[in-house]
Amino acid sequence: MSDVTTLEILGSTALITVDNPPVNAASAAVRQGLVNRIDEANSNDAVDVIAIIGAGRTFTAGADIREFGKTPVEPMLTEVCSHIEASAKPVIAVLHGTTLGGGLEIALGCHARIGVPTVQLGFPEVSLGIIPGAGGTQRAPRLSGMGAAAEYIASGRRLSSDEALAKGLLDAIADGEPRAIALDQAERVRQGDLATRRVGELDASLDPDAITAARAAVAKRAPLLVAPQRCIDAVADSTLELSAGLARERELFAECMATDQHKGLVHAFFAERAVQKIPEASETPRPIESLGVVGGGTMGSGIATSALFAGLPVTLVEMNADGLDRARTAIAGNLAGAVKRGKLSQDKHDAILASALTFSTDLADLAESDLVIEAVFEDMDVKKDIFAKLDTLCKPTALLASNTSYLDINVIAACTNRPTQVLGLHFFSPAHIMRLLEVVVGDQTAPDVVATGFALGKRLRKVAVRAGVCDGFIGNRILGHFRKVADYMMLDGAHYSQIDAALEDFGFAMGPFAVSDLAGLDIGWATRKRLAATKPAAERDVGVSDRICENGWFGRKTQRGFYDYRSGKKAANPDVDAILEAERQAAGITPAAFENSDIVDRYMTAMIAEATRVIEDGIALRPVDVDTVFLFGYGFPRQRGGPLHYADTLGAAALVARMERWAEEDAHYWQVPALLRKMAADGSTFADLNRA
Ligand code: T1G
């Protein structure tokens, strides 16, 4: 237990170091170690000042999230912070790295806090569906004031050292290594140059207007989430005497810990890291120092922008000067937008445009690129032609990737003499913003080429998920299935705006019809035409979208789709209602009323069913990979953890029962996956599959 915290007596300073890699999480051993070290330092007469630092890259970055859901182990972090605060001898903390959550609460239990200039402080608990549970909601307002504390606790955002100093969370900023700073600042305490105080003994002043403003901000930003409001509840009660305030905080913390939102958000936190664990993880990625992009449309320009952000030089090839002009304009717009959003410095922006980006109309200019990503029209013949040319033009070691959303990577690879160096890198639009990257592995893709796809994803700050080859890989295959049930419900009686509203109430940023309008109805139209020849006879036909497209209405890009955008905002479209009415009459359908809950149940069950088949077919490695695809590529509500984490809250048996009931209406659509039936029979869960 002692090795995660150490105590050194250096002169009259007791230096306590937390050493629990990788982020010094406040595990049970760390908590007990801190209590023991504080007691040892207080009983050592040679010591007059105590300092706490973190080893490695950061001061404690929070409670150990892996302990969530397990039987709590004493001492609880609240008690540890109070124990530090009660220390007879002054205790200072030197903060570096990402001092977050419980780590910041430990620091607030100390009597003074010094940060290095690059330290970042914050309370990210709300992103895990909880509130700070070790005194943060009670001590932070005593230093920052109720309004500031409510804002940064309920938002979960990070504060720079300067902002933390201005808001009272830091007492000083000092440059150097934490150990040296600790000794130097302990001396300043001795000399009376650094004041120390017990934060819990300060008073928090009531600020009702600030609380009202904080509540309004949260209601606007995250109306469906519980934890942000509970953060404000706890902060509002920081005017209580400390022990009463801590009791109130513990009550609210326990309430949040019991929510499905908390479980979903913790699942999402670990999901982003679990998907990096692929069979090829031990392979050495090939060096990628220059990137070629073929195609300067929305996707090609977005991919190029994403690579430029990561410092990768890019050569973009388009067919002609007009295409290059469009790409140049799109990339310039992406870069300028990033500068405007504060994501890119002006200097870096200028440097990119000056040296890192080259345009050409000649594929031969990609001869020296380490990796070429093709992002042209979604047509197999066009892609085959390009890959055949790239194969002759590019250096023998170059990797060739397609950004295709659906098409067969094996067929594309077969057009080259280097199938082991061909893979899919499926970006999501807008490619310089959306974090998901499906790394599509062909039958002959070499393991180190897969690892290279993941290394590129990490470098571009994407969340890479490994996908097998099928029509649509993971996300689009599942989307292609469950999107149909929205059309079926619309034809059967639920207005498309009701379906959108029901799913937005569930937590989706946008409902399926609004998403189709945004993406472009012509894309789905092209897919339906592409698949028409192989469409099963038993599959229901809904012609509404086709009729809309036949009018030339492709959604936002043509100002009309399911909705009418000509007024500048989304409005109902009576023309579509007339089309819907005509299609219902042609199908002999009398519209039935749908409850919003029924809409959600059908939509989510369809998503879960196809996701299960994607697992069965080995297209996704684990359920958590499917969850990650939907969390980072399809706007799935993060607090629900992803479709298969959500499925576990319903249970396989209930899902099978629903599908068997609906199969009486449409046996073709509601086929129960064998895996789901097995899970219903043996009571297993998708979480069990993740652990397997
Ligand atoms: N507990 C356990 N493991 C953690 C962890 C944590 N708090 N934070 C990170 N890890 C693991 C992570 O899973 C990964 O493991 C490895 O460390 C490296 O992480 C009472 C209750 C600190 C900014 O929410 O934001 O305090 O996959 O890849 O990109 O009020 O980790 O390698 O096996 O993310 O450099 C509040 C969560 C907790 C911080 C570092 N704290 N962590 O980012 O590395 S709740 C947080 C992060 C709390 C109290 C409440 C980031 C990071 P593996 P990484 P990184």
What does this structure look like?
This protein is an alpha/beta fold. It has 3 domains: 5-258, Alpha-Beta Complex (2-enoyl-CoA Hydratase, Chain A, domain 1); 291-473, 3-Layer(aba) Sandwich (Rossmann fold), CATH 3.40.50; 476-691, N-(1-d-carboxylethyl)-l-norvaline Dehydrogenase, domain 2. Helix content is 48%, strand content 11%. It is built from 29 helices and 17 strands. The strands form 3 sheets. The protein has an 8-stranded mixed β-sheet, with helices on both faces. A hairpin with a 2-residue loop joins strand 1 and strand 2 (13-18). The longest helix is centred in the C-terminal third of the chain and has 21 residues, at 596-616. The protein is globular and about 85 Å long. The model has no long low-confidence stretch (mean pLDDT 95).
Helical amount among residues, as a percent range?
A: 40-55%
- Residue-averaged pLDDT: 95
Which word captures the global form?
globular
From the N-terminal CA to the C-terminal CA, the straight-line distance is 30 Å
- Bound heterogens, unique: (2S,3S)-3-hydroxy-2-methylbutanoyl-COA
Determine the CATH superfamily of the largest domain.
Answer: 2-enoyl-CoA Hydratase, Chain A, domain 1
Return residue spans where pLDDT drops below 50 for at least 5 consecutive residues. none
Number of domains: 3
Which band does the percent of strand residues land in? 5-15%
Q: Please count the helical segments.
A: 29
Radius of gyration: 28 Å
CATH class annotation of the largest domain: Alpha Beta
Instruction: Give the strand line-up of the largest sheet.
Output: 12-11-10-13-14-15-16-17
Number of strands: 17
- Write down the CATH topology of the largest domain: 2-enoyl-CoA Hydratase, Chain A, domain 1
Supply the helix-strand structural class: alpha/beta
CATH architecture of the largest domain: Alpha-Beta Complex
The biggest beta sheet reads: 8 strands, mixed
